Amino acid sequence: MKYQKIYDKNVQCEICPRKCKLAPNQSGFCYVRKNINGEVVPVSYGYNTGLAIDPIEKKPMYHFYPGSKVLSFGTLGCIMGCMFCQNWQTTKVNYPIENCQKNSPEQIVEIALQYGCSGVAFTYNDPIAFFEYATDTAKLCRENGLKTVAVTSGYINPEPAKEFFSLMDCANIDLKGFSEKFYAKNCLAHLQPVLDTIQYAVKETDCFVELTTLLIDGENNQFVEAECEWIKENLGDCVPLHFSAFFPRYKFSDRKPTNAETLYNARNIAKNYGLKYIYTGNIPDVESSTTYCKNCGEALIKRDGYNLIENNIQNGKCKFCGREQDGRF
Ligand code: SF4
What we know:
The chain is α/β, with parallel strands linked by helices. Helices cover about 25% and strands about 25% of the residues. The strands form 6 sheets. The protein has an 8-stranded mixed β-sheet. The longest helix has 14 residues, at about 190-205. The mean pLDDT is about 95. Iron/sulfur cluster (SF4) binds near residues 15 and 30.
């Protein structure tokens, strides 16, 4: 059950930790789940803000079939309340649903196959907000040999997380800032449920996970050490970690874009903690976008933006030393 009845026609949504209590005709925080006649209805089901064919590197996923193409889509609304949302036009305001494109899960799978995509990505807004549309599409993808890719905040309750991650072949989960205060103030959410989801997905599912932290100067870059320490202790040293640059958007429109130095510093900190795969994002830099073999240190995959310029992984192994690599290749 994704909701429970409280009394009369009042219900409580069980998808994310907000557990919104909804009176008849009331919508939740995400604004796309609504109490209609005592049932929580996902009103964005079947609607998307457009389909695009993206390189998987754009999600970003660097260790999951590098160079492959995925059909990407998202819908409306979000379970998080990030002040720095980079897609706020469709997640934070009541964007008219009639401006959306309509595609059933069957049509999405058909289009992905028609255009030779290797998978479908649930992205642009958080698929937890469009749980049913994403999971129904994911089931059909599996039946048709397509991979499934989630780009998510990880803000989901343990029970729906089981279904969600069982249907995802890979996920990039945002770790928005390693501080409860940062999550409360700038995301209107909590850190601990995100950490629980990350641990669950990495340790107890077959979903391949990468992490992204969008760094904002003066807001969350001071928590990088604590984040790396937690990752090392709880996930090990082989979960790929992306430090991405923020651009001024939404309530943080008056801030400055992230300085490249901030990203390089974060990468150095992560290296000092012994993390093996650390990348910078949203800035052009081949060196910090390259995957190095954790065994012999040779450059395995060189990237220029979203393009691969060299790939030295053969049959999932380093071409130079033969060591099996972390990811799916
Ligand atoms: S998914 Fe939406 S309605 Fe459900 S608890 Fe989360 S924010 Fe509230």
